[in-house]
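Why does residue order matter? Because the sequence determines the fold. Keep that principle in mind as you read this record.
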Amino acid sequence: MKKGISIIVCCYNSADVIENTLLSLCNQIKDAGTGTEILLIDNVSSDGTSVIAKNFISGNFPGTDFRIIGERRAGLAFARERGFREAEYEYAVLCDDDNRLSPDYCQKAFELMESDKNIAAAGGYGNAVSTVPFPSWFEKFRKSYSTGGQADSRGDVTSSSGYVWGAGMVLRLTAISELYSKGFSSILSDRKGETLSSGGDVELCYALRLSGHRIYYEPSLVFDHFLKPSRLTWKYLRKLYRGFGRQKPLLEPYTAAYNGETEIKNRSWKREALLLMRRLRSYGGTNIRAFAGRSEGSEDVLKMEKTLGRLEQLVSMKKEYERNFTQIFSAEWISPETKNK
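Structure:
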């Protein structure tokens, strides 16, 4: 692949934000110092996102290396996968439609990836931006919105968190290509439309570390994350945590494999569901009453949302939960070093 950066912007009904995102990216390209392209992956939008984007680029930044690609499979993971296949450069930057990358983001991303060939994914620092004041509880839960720092300091996070956010994620596409060529297939489809299921970014990082690559946090990679007022409500955050819970059973096979497990043994969806029901009962009447009310800012309520989401996912999956462990444990893309550690 050619040396440079492919900026992948995945969109679903992004008409109201896409112009500002493209403005920040086109201004960045002028100073990137390396080959750079913008790929807009339109994931079944119905609001004219592609037309607005095309007209904005042609009217304001003619000559920009810019392509619009349609992806008919609904789901962010599918849109990103399409972007990986279409990219012409060695490194990719995932820019969500509500992200604004700092002017030197791509240049610093390129230099970081060039400095260490073992880094397959890297993430940066997100500034929270909105047109309305942030709620009193926002600072406590800001990481849930992919804002703030992703670790206490820059460095390798492979064996700690093991992932970086999809917002602003930098990827080595040779590592991604190798992963898919050896049979990797996402268990999660990630967000579909307005639903709040998620975790595709975590899954991809977990797969990369199982294949022997490193995950890195670099706080000098700075981006603004524009948060619509509708996302800064307690109701939205509760739904977000319910989605975090749903992703948990799908990601467990990856963490089990990384921790050296090779057999399913006691992995039963019924057993896990019973444990979760006991956990819900352990919260007690006070927290259950808080759960039924507004309870704004309650960490216990969010924990209950995650537990419920996890339980819902287990029940909907049933025996597929156990099959996923078998699938991941036997995956050809897991490195021998990981299997034998």
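The longest strand covers residues 214-226.
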